[in-house]
Amino acid sequence: MSANLESLLWLTVVGILWGGTNPFIKKGAKGMERVEGSNIITRFFKEIYFLLTNWRYMVPFILNQSGSVVYFLTLQNTEMSLAVPISNSLTFVFTAISGWFVGEGKPNSRMLTGMFLVLSGISLCLFDKTVNIVSDY
Length: 137
Known about the structure:
The protein is mainly α. It is built from five helices and no strands. It has one domain (5-136).
């Protein structure tokens, strides 16, 4: 197996689906802290009901879970040593970007530095795999 462009594209989609939906899931769950119940079990089921009937939570949650399906399917053709760091790292980048759009705060210099370092790390992983592929021939 190698790092092909199609796998990288799908891993980027996974990062977008996972990271891009995180702030929306957080925003959609607002109000759950006001759910009350007579005991812990009743409260648990009322919280589940609150989430399942809340489209602002369920739509991004379903999109987020579809990212897991895409990830699972992509693993069939991609090395784990590439899939895990790329998809998980990009999740943080896209969470920061979508959080900015949702109004969680403008990216500051530390956040931008972190994004740069994440993208640099992904580039190093890809470079390592590319060099290994070329040296095998």
